[in-house]
């Protein structure tokens, strides 16, 4: 689940914005892909004006780029951008960890333990070579990291972190990255640190966790297929067919 997902009572325009945002974050719409308004209208079932409004909102978030008279495209990816987003995530998450660990109560501990349990179960399945849905795995990963900072006491910090996390998540979904046992072990240590209220250990571990992911993606060449011209970016098959690609 990304921060783009809303509720059933929202307006058609808000629903379209959230659907497009989720498709970008989960890499169903590929980096660099042109976003033709006529094709999008068929896929998302809203008018051109509503789509323009949604795409402009996404452009302000750095997930889409406006190309003037040429329309819109999904924001490209690069190693430099990924590193910058990773640093922003670390800045926000480490600040929130310190506040959350200080204020967290027994209910907060229970939420952290529960979130980690779901994540650990899915990680064990992935390590055993069993099939698992990538979006569900990343949903549980997100829920765990969000639970760690949930007691920080700042709505603004949590909202800013959620936006930064989604931009980081997009890179993980583009690269389909699972670093195996090391990531699972780091999550377990983060849980231990939270229950022990060991802020320094958690912050040091988080930096290793995030920087390890960046290194894995960049050095492994996962972004290389998207470094060519936007024309070559390929959307997911169902969206490609709907958008006439």
UniProtKB/TrEMBL annotation:
Entry superkingdom: Bacteria
Keyword Nucleotidyltransferase included in the entry's annotation: no
Record flagged with keyword Transcription regulation: yes
InterPro entries in alphabetical order: GntR_C, Tscrpt_reg_HTH_GntR
One Pfam family it belongs to: GntR
The HTH gntR-type domain, residue ranges: 10-77
Classification via SMART domains: FCD, HTH_GNTR
Protein name stated in the entry: GntR family transcriptional regulator
């Amino acid at each position: 689940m990304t921060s783009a997902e809303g509720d059933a009572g929202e307006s058609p325009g808000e629903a379209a914005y959230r659907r497009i945002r989720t498709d970008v974050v989960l890499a169903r719409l590929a980096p660099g892909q042109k976003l033709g308004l006529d094709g999008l209208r068929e896929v998302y079932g809203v008018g051109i004006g509503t789509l323009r409004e949604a795409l402009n909102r996404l452009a302000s978030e750095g997930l889409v780029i406006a190309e003037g008279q040429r329309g819109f495209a999904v924001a490209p990816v690069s190693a430099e951008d990924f590193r910058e987003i990773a640093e922003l995530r670390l800045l926000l998450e480490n600040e929130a960890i310190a506040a959350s660990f200080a204020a967290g109560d027994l209910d907060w501990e229970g939420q952290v333990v529960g979130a980690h349990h779901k994540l650990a179960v899915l990680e064990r399945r992935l390590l055993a070579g069993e099939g698992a849905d990538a979006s569900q795995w990343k949903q549980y990963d997100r829920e765990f990291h969000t639970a760690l900072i949930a007691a920080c006491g700042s709505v603004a910090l949590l909202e800013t972190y959620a936006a930064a996390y989604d931009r980081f998540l997009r890179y993980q979904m583009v690269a389909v990255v699972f670093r195996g046992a090391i990531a699972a072990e780091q999550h377990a240590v983060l849980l231990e640190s939270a229950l022990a209220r060991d802020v320094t250990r958690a912050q040091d571990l988080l930096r290793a966790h995030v920087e390890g992911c960046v290194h894995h993606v960049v050095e492994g060449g996962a972004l290389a297929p998207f470094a060519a011209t936007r024309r070559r970016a390929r959307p997911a098959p169902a969206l490609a067919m709907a958008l006439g690609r």
